[in-house]
Design brief:
The complex is a heterodimer. Chain A is built from nine helices and 19 strands. Chain A is of the alpha/beta class. In chain A, strands 1, 2, 3, 4, 5, 6 and 19 form a seven-stranded mixed sheet that branches. A five-stranded parallel sheet of chain A has the order 8-15-9-10-11. In chain A, strands 12-13-14 form a three-stranded antiparallel sheet, with no helix packed on it. In chain A, strand 10, helix 5 and strand 11 form a beta-alpha-beta unit. The radius of gyration of chain A is 21 Å and the shape is globular. By secondary structure, chain B is mainly beta. Chain B has a single domain, classed as Roll (Ubiquitin-like (UB roll)). Chain B has one helix and seven strands; from the N terminus they run E-E-H-E-E-E-E-E. In chain B, strands 2-1-7-5-6 form a five-stranded mixed sheet, covered by helices on one side. Chain B starts with 17 loop residues before the first strand and ends in a 10-residue tail after the last strand. The mean pLDDT of chain B is 87. Classes of the chains: A alpha/beta, B mainly beta. The interface between A and B is large, with 37 and 41 residues. The structure holds flavin-adenine dinucleotide (FAD) and FE2/S2 (inorganic) cluster.
Amino acid sequence: MIKHEELIIIGGGPAGLSAAKSALEADLNVLLIERYVRLGGQLIKQTHKFFGSKNQKAKMRGFNIATLLIDGLKDAPGHLTVLTEATVVGMYDERIVTVWHDATYKKYQADAIIVATGASEKFLAFENNDLPGIYGAGGVQTLMNLNGVLPGTDIIMVGSGNIGLIVAYQLMQAGARVTSVLEAAPRIGGYAVHASKLRRLGVSIKTRTTIKRAIGENKVEACEIVSLDDQWNIIEGTEETINTDAICIAVGLSPMHQLLSMAGAKTSYISELGGLVPCVDENNQTSIDGVFVSGDASGIEEASSAMVEGRFTGLIAAKKLGHVTKGFDKDINECRDQLFNLRRGPCGLKIREGIRKLREVNDHA
Amino acid sequence: MGMRIQNHPILEFTEKKPVRFFYEGKQMVGREGDTIASALHANGINVLSRSVKDNRPRGFYCAIGNCGSCQMRVDGVNNVRTCITELTPNMHIERQRGLADDQT
Ligand SMILES: Cc1cc2nc3c(=O)[nH]c(=O)nc-3n(C[C@H](O)[C@H](O)[C@H](O)COP(=O)(O)OP(=O)(O)OC[C@H]3O[C@@H](n4cnc5c(N)ncnc54)[C@H](O)[C@@H]3O)c2cc1C
Ligand code: FES
């Protein structure tokens, strides 16, 4: 049996929660589907104070922002149903989705769908990279910040982008020892503030260095690291073995486009946005009528932009279903302005370039 | 339980209630709020499964239900992603080899 819904939102991170709020405020009935046991997405693992502007709740800790967004859904006029521990496993024509929930498959058909599934972590190829004790940075964060369990006691972080630096710092806060942060590039990828916080704790950040192989029988016991030259080639003879019981990989994220690809939405590979992304119009609608996308699923950015995009997409989806809110034009312009501001300046260069390329692909289609 | 965080400047974990469960028939104790994978990890169990091809050990990796490297048999059900499944009292958790048949 297929159950009919007005709006289905897939993913309960900052994008999905913000989309739910604006759709509910437009008096839409919303079904919000989240794979994890709790709503909040990446935010619930973030113990640090967020960067960004105060419009997007900067200076608050990530998990507190999640609580704020979840509480914000309570008094809206529309009707909200939330499914947690529910994974959307398939998406098909006519906006039909299959959901694995409560040990059964359920089918829904919706008038509109917002895909807000976030991102998945990129993996790194090296010898023995499948040994237990090698984790994604997100996995490590879940384990320590949600479950209160440390991945190990002597940890190697691979990747010095903001995520690698922040998670390394959080590991130290939680009582583990990060012996080094490895970075293949000649320069540290993340913000200098995060790097100096780590250095003050005695963590060495090794640039032009990568991991060659993990060593261990049933679990990581050590790893071999090696220096790289300017062409990113291994410099023979620089191998060094370090004892470690956990290796944490933080080499970037890619948007979770899989459901959209399955449904036949057009995608394009745009490295500035993190990989394969759905082609969208200026309303965040994909090539499938009534199917929208927002947040990291449409290109890797930040929680701040995910919240604005979510709000924006919720309003647009509501309008499409005949629910135009009173301040619609003003709200939409406000969202556009905020996104413009978030993507301004040197930090927004990559994302601006990515969006420009995406529009180009669309125009040629 | 050596891997439990003892002191944390921002988060509070200490008041969580113990949850009893069984791993390969052996009684163990996790905490309220644990996933199956985190409870096993806190009990020093790192190898959650073995790969189909070369019988290589597998631990969890992504912890968000994406990669499938944490699948185990839970209360008789195969292929449960233990990283996104909450630990409940008296659960029976077993290792399975690779992907078992009834894919869920
Ligand atoms: C260590 C770290 C530090 C960060 N620091 C900052 C910061 O300081 N400031 C900032 O602005 N941003 C920061 N970010 C980035 C920010 O967390 C993300 O950009 C943001 O969470 C993206 O929001 P989202 O809603 O698109 O995706 P997510 O938060 O990833 O949420 C997606 C949700 O969808 C669910 N889901 C996925 N697939 C399915 C499915 N098939 N069925 C059902 N549910 C599904 C997931 O379980 C998840 O809950 C940080 C990220 C990390 C990892
Ligand atoms: S660790 Fe990746 S699915 Fe569980």
